[in-house]
Amino acid sequence: MKNKILTAVSTIMILVPWTILPLRTFDWALESPAAEIMIACYAAFMIFSGVFTIISYVKANAQNNLMKVCLIVNSLYAVVGVVFLGMMVNTHFM
Fold it and tell me: Model-level pTM?
């Protein structure tokens, strides 16, 4: 039962970063402070979802086929989130 819950949470975490696309259609989401905060929050969530999925896969032994897909996708999200945060920090201090 625990493995099914962890798999469901990891699967939902795959879909959440895509919700930034409809939000970016609003004018307020394209202005400087709101855009930076929103991107930083999404990047932090992507990093959290990658770490959560890795821990769920390794420590909780939730090793089914859907979890393997979630592991790959959320790990890629985590890497992209680190890159986005790195780019934001780099442009902020330069």
Answer: 0.91
